[in-house]
Specification:
The complex is a heterotrimer of chains A (about 260), B (about 625) and C (about 220). Chain B contains 17 helices and 22 strands. Chain B has about 625 residues and is α+β, with helices and mostly antiparallel strands. The two termini of chain B are about 40 Å apart. Chain C has about 220 residues and is mostly helical. Chain C is built from 9 helices and no strands. Chain C is elongated and about 60 Å long. Chain C starts with a helix and ends in a 6-residue tail after the last helix. The model of chain C has no long low-confidence stretch (mean pLDDT about 90). Classes of the chains: A alpha+beta (about 260), B alpha+beta (about 625), C mainly alpha (about 220). Chains in contact: A-B, A-C. At the A-B interface, α1, α2, α3 and α9 of A face α2, α3, α5, α6 and α11 of B.
Chain lengths: ~260, ~625, ~220
């Protein structure tokens, strides 16, 4: 089949950027969306034109590198599918396809369809972990976890950190991302000790990184390639409310670590 | 040169304790003054950087991805082995050790493998403490499943995303250290060169993939955790960005490359659908727990699978290997699939595929249980093929998946270049000629969490911190070399794209250095690869400039290395005149078609030293001695 | 407490709680209004006036709630706008609704309407000639009933009220279920139920409130 593409081209962060039109010829239904772009790119290179830059890596829907808004939907129309797992059989001959990068203040465009998502990493760095020390931990089976809790934690932990939730959110909010991590850890006994601090610092960091506020549009859930549910956002909110009863400063483990580092 | 793995003497189970006792320590107050470079942030890199940072060292971590959470370890599906013996089915550290050595077809170092088995239990404890949501039973205990090459259930798993969950665990530990300031992260940064000062690894040259800027980092030691080289085959289950450049450029600087011909073909991948194919998708081997592999008994049987009656199906793995059946090790299962397809009994439009059938398992356990165990894999399969595997059997075919070869390291994971440590898939150490399922995750994390923190201290304790800075002339030299390399790539402006060369290289290797190799095929490869390489340097086209984000330039650099590395691989395969594990030479097989090992002549690690691009590399050997496992014919019948 | 007003979730919690309390007020207000159907409205108003300390407490609380809701609502909206500076050339909404995307506008319309509503019936400056302060009914009570009836016989005023009520309904359709989500009261099971209940409650309020001016306009209730 033949397709017309309108692709966002932007030379670098300072460039204004624009949609440009390309033709994709001889596309077969078995191809993945990215393989279709590969073909377009090979054509461009042959014409000594710079190919379209886009993030991709594992091409099996797990690394979370993909970041394209296809016809107005992050990762395209197919439910629970990342761009790399989207196949051309879902398109038909003559279709026009608009391809744009993730858009949010926290995700500045680096080039074409590539954006900088390090803000998500910084949310995790703020407290999206359990501060266990390598080695000094109990036997794995000394912590019993009800199967249902483990399964729910896993539902949240499946997040691939692609940022589609932010791209889909009219407010550019990263609540689903933060909520998935907060919920994953809050549902496990190991995560309880730091639960209060975690939810506070992670939501705080989210604002610092320039993400918007969640106003419960639920676009994120619909766009999430892993089907992470907005009920985890409610869970984050519950975890937050739990911290309101606690008086005094909730210190961060980083603060504590700085105290215990050996002095000169 | 005869290499020494520097394994401790003494009883097998006391070796690691003994070594830890011998190793020097770095005073806690001094750790901060030592800088360690960690390249790669997959399981090995992230766990190493996190642990070293936590110990107090100053760590610089690098990855080519935009986030350390995207290392390709994330795509491992099935699970991670440990000798916990929770199911009480007879597992032990020794048995895991034994299975791994045997699975590796007796081409791994005993002491390393035993240590790996011994620390496997600590890994599970560590991951649970980090909040990895492993599968559990109704009483809340950890659940296990069985995996290829083992008769016990020792594999821990988190749905079909074990690699993802383990990597996110390591990533979270790394994130904590980044916040604490002990680790500085450099994402979207690619290593171009290893910098040696007085013969020791003291830094790296990198390219900032966003700005194109060439930068230098000096350190007291360097850890390469850059994964394997499956992508030399173009089509593999590796991520598109996986490459050999870091290890290959270290090889060019003097590190020995060990057993490059040991590549693993994974039996359960989704078959190729056409020329456009950019990569192959693996379906976890755990599927073989419940799926039965078969092809029609008759050649060219075009009927739909459900129309083929039971008696006309050939469950060839169960037939050939009654005691392991569908769980036969990867190399054996892969070759068996290739054989039946070569006989013309393959299924699917290309004829290169076999069925993996869940009908019996669904009948026995119910669709719900199967969905619970493999739901995401079935979904993935449906997304790619538009077929529902609950209703009709999957089609699978082998694909390159993992590379056992890698930079040669001693027991301390130190390469032949002092100060250069190599972890995870990037080294050669633990899997011999074939890796068992669920062992890669185990090795990556063992190296990063529990081995490098001890062994690197020994090296550092013998050097003064901060001896070398980026002002050293070696960095200038490296810069010039790196810039020239890039300039050369951009100046050719030929007619063929980088991908075309890569695809062509992959075709040569798959054809001649693939699942079955022969002297003539390997010689053919050794003739074709240099020709292709010469054409590459005359006729490749790389668009754009060096001073910007340029994905073509990145690819070109990697393919240039693959074009040299492929030759090394073929050369190693040619020299190893025996069949073992993932290396199958058609001249060396038993009358029944099984691999014929030659322990008399090849019970050694082949470590190659670089002598020049056009000249033959120098072969160094490390003799393998087996004191605890007697090399036997690896039988899974 | 400082953390509450600084944090994103904290601000939203304030929005949720103030919103829900104002919703309660709207419910009671409607119940009070139905006294018009029984021609008790003047008596009802008198009873309320007799409880003037309570009325003033309620008024004070409502103003506080409204101000908080307004201030944080505007602040959150501005933050959200700045978090999404560039628009897509094409953007499809998958789950977001007209109501959810226009909360700020429906909210501001309601605020504007509230001002008019107060001027109309509380301060009675819109139609001073019909002011209940000046006219009394047969019982000698201020004649609220006639003032209301007179007002809604005017098509312009009727339209204004109906339009504002639609804005209110839209605001509640999203706001009600959203407040439960923000307060962490949603689960996978309850979320669709709460969302539906929110829509139904909003529609009941719309019908309840709109019935009064409509019934007056078409002449079923006469002055």
């Amino acid at each position: 089949m033949n397709l017309t593409l309108y692709v966002w081209r932007q030379k670098n962060a300072d460039d204004r950027g624009r949609l440009e039109q390309y033709e994709a010829h001889g596309i077969s239904p078995e191809m993945s969306f990215l393989e279709m772009l590969d073909i377009v790119n090979e054509d461009l290179i042959k014409k000594a034109t710079e190919p379209i830059a886009f993030d991709h890596d594992c091409r099996e829907g797990i690394c979370g590198s993909c970041s394209q808004v296809i016809n107005g939907v992050p990762h395209g129309q197919e439910e629970k599918t990342s761009v790399c797992q989207l196949h051309m059989r879902h398109f038909k001959d003559g279709d026009a396809i608009y391809i744009e990068p993730w858009r949010a203040r926290a995700f500045p465009v680096i080039k074409d369809l590539i954006v900088d998502r390090s803000a998500l990493d910084r949310i995790i760095q703020a407290g999206g972990y359990i501060s266990s020390h390598t080695g000094g931990v109990p036997d794995a089976n000394s912590i019993l976890i009800p199967k249902d809790d483990a399964e729910k934690a896993m539902d949240a932990a499946e997040c691939i950190g692609c940022g589609a939730c932010v791209a889909a959110c009219p407010n550019g909010s990263a609540m689903l991302f933060a909520a998935a991590k907060v919920s994953h850890l809050a549902m496990l006994p190991q995560g309880q000790v730091e639960a209060a601090r975690r939810v506070r610092v992670m939501t705080e960091e989210m604002m610092k990184q320039g993400f918007g506020n969640c106003t419960n549009h639920y676009e994120c859930q619909a766009a999430c390639p892993k089907g992470i549910k907005v009920s985890f956002i409610a869970k984050l909110n519950r975890e937050f409310i739990k911290t309101l009863g606690r008086s005094g400063k909730i210190s961060s483990s980083v603060d504590r670590m700085a105290d215990t580092l050996p002095s000169e | 040169m005869i290499l020494d793995g520097k394994c401790p003497s003494g009883l097998l189970h006391e070796k690691w304790d003994k070594r830890r006792q011998e190793l020097n320590l770095v005073n806690p107050a001094n750790k901060r003054k030592y800088k360690i470079i960690v390249v790669g942030t997959g399981l090995a890199g992230a766990s190493a950087a996190a642990t070293l940072g936590e110990l107090g060292y100053t760590v610089e971590a690098f990855c080519y991805q935009d986030s350390p959470r995207r290392g390709h370890s994330i795509a491992a599906q099935g699970g991670i082995n440990a000798a916990k013996n929770y199911p009480n089915d007879g597992d032990s550290i020794f048995r895991l050790f034994y299975d791994t050595v045997k699975g590796g077809d007796f081409r791994a170092r005993e002491a390393n493998v035993y240590r790996l088995a011994a620390v496997s239990n600590n890994i599970i404890d560590q991951c649970v403490a980090q909040g990895v949501p492993f599968a559990r039973d109704y009483a809340g205990y950890l659940d296990n499943r069985s995996f290829g090459g083992a008769q016990v259930s020792r594999t821990f798993y988190a749905r079909g995303q074990t690699g993802q969950q383990l990597l996110l665990g390591a990533y979270s530990a790394l994130s904590r250290q980044i916040r604490a300031g002990s680790v500085r992260l450099h994402p979207r940064t690619e290593m171009l060169d290893l910098v040696l000062v007085n013969g020791e690894a003291k830094g790296i040259t990198v390219r900032d993939m966003v700005t194109g800027e060439i930068k230098f980092f000096a350190a007291d030691a360097v850890c390469l955790c850059t994964g394997g080289y499956s992508n030399v085959f173009y089509l593999s289950t590796n991520a598109m960005g996986c490459n050999v450049s870091a290890t290959y450029r270290a090889y060019k600087k003097g590190a020995f490359f060990a057993n490059p011909c040991f590549t693993q073909i994974h039996p359960t991948c989704i078959p190729v659908s056409g020329d456009h194919q950019s990569k192959l998708t693996l379906m976890s081997e755990s599927l073989r727990n419940d799926g039965r592999v078969w092809v029609p008994k008759n050649k060219g049987d075009q009927r739909r699978p459900d129309e083929i009656p039971e008696e006309e199906r050939d469950y060839f793995l169960e037939r050939k290997y009654p005691s392991f059946g569908n769980l036969a090790p990867r190399d054996i299962a892969s070759r068996a699939a290739k054989e039946v397809c070569d006989e013309g009994r393959g299924v699917g439009s290309s004829g290169r595929g076999v069925y993996l059938d869940f009908a019996d398992a669904i009948k026995r356990l119910g669709e719900i249980t199967i969905r619970e165990r493999y739901g995401n894999l079935f979904n993935m399969y449906e997304k790619i093929t538009a077929e529902n595997a609950y209703k009709q059997p999957m089609r699978i075919y082998p694909a390159v998946h993992y590379t056992m070869g890698g930079l040669w390291v001693d027991y301390n994971l130190e390469s032949t270049i002092p100060g250069l440590f190599v972890l995870g898939e990037a080294n050669f150490s633990d899997h011999g000629a074939n890796r068992l399922g669920a062992s890669a995750l185990m090795q990556g994390l063992a190296d990063g969490y529990f081995i490098i923190p001890y062994t690197i201290a020994n090296y550092l304790a013998q050097t003064a911190p901060g001896k070398v800075t980026v002002e050293h002339p070696e960095f200038r030299k490296s810069e010039t070399e790196s810039r020239d390399f890039i300039k050369r790539l951009l100046s050719i402006q030929g007619k063929k794209t980088v991908t075309e060369f890569h695809r062509e290289l992959g075709r040569i290797l798959w054809e001649h250095v693939g699942m079955a190799r022969s002297e003539s095929s390997l010689k053919k490869a050794l003739q074709l690869i240099p020709e292709l390489r010469a054409e590459f340097w005359e006729n490749v086209t790389v668009t754009g400039t060096s001073a910007e984000l340029n994905q073509e330039l990145e690819k070109a650099g990697r393919v240039a290395d693959f074009l040299e590395f492929g030759e090394l691989m073929a050369r190693d395969a040619l020299h190893r005149a025996e069949s073992c594990g993932g290396h199958f030479r058609v001249e060396y097989q038993m009358p029944d078609g099984e691999a014929q090992r030659d322990d008399e002549n090849f019970s050694y690690v082949a470590a190659w030293g670089f002598t020049g691009v056009a000249t033959e590399p120098e072969l160094h050997k490390e003799r393998l001695s087996f004191e605890h496992v007697h090399p036997s014919v690896r039988s899974y019948k | 407490m400082q953390f509450l007003i600084k944090s994103s979730v904290g601000k939203k919690l304030i929005m949720a709680i103030t919103g829900q309390l104002m919703f309660l007020f709207i419910v009671f207000h409607l119940i009070g209004n139905t006294s018009l159907y029984f021609s008790w409205i003047n008596t009802y108003a008198k009873h309320l006036h007799d409880l003037w300390p309570l009325v003033w407490i309620v008024r004070f609380v409502m103003i506080t709630l409204l101000s908080l809701h307004l201030v944080f609502g505007i602040q959150l909206t501005l933050e959200n706008r700045s978090a999404k500076p560039d628009a897509y050339a094409i953007k499809k909404s998958l789950r977001a609704t007209f109501a959810s995307k226009n909360m700020i506008w429906t909210g501001l319309i309601i605020a504007g309407f509230l001002l008019y509503h107060l001027l109309h019936f509380t301060f009675q400056v819109v139609h001073p000639e019909m002011s209940a302060k000046l006219n009394t009914d047969v019982m000698g009570l201020p004649d609220l009933f006639s003032m209301i009836v007179f007002g809604f016989q005017n098509f312009f005023i009727l339209s204004l009220y109906i339009a504002s009520l639609i804005a209110l309904t839209l605001h509640l359709v999203h706001g009600l279920q959203s407040s439960f989500q923000t307060m962490g009261l949603n689960t996978d099971q309850t979320q669709p139920v709460i969302a539906k209940a929110g829509v139904i409650a909003s529609l009941i309020l719309l019908i309840g409130y709109a019935s009064i001016p409509v019934v007056i306009f078409i002449g079923i209730v006469k002055g």
